[in-house]
Amino acid sequence: MSKAHMTRVPLLPVHWWDRSPGAINVSRNTAKEDPSAGASAGFILREWTRNGTRVLEDFVDALNSDDLLPDVWADAAAVDTSNLHATPAQLREINDRVHKTIDAIVTEFRGRNDPGSRPVQIQFNAFPLIDGEETPS
Prior knowledge:
By secondary structure, this protein is mainly alpha-helical.
């Protein structure tokens, strides 16, 4: 979702490092318009990435511990990776479609605190691999 600023932060957490209840999108256009905002956005994106990696590693580590993660939670979770060649337009379409799907599903469940529920994080990243080469036209 190409935007010229930070978007979709419906409720701010108490601290910037707390979980936000909504989706957050920080655009590259921010850096182009304001270098200081771009530096801040880069810092935040790196911290989100580090945190996302940490919570995923915690999950992977907990897979071997019934005390930390019962089978019902391990079986309900997913860690998936897909690789393909895509043009920028195709990657944009993939991102738009996945975001639309995730938004619809998360909207249905957000704000609920059903018995037996716990915090869940849905991570989605789709980006060109820097070490990959573009197929010539």
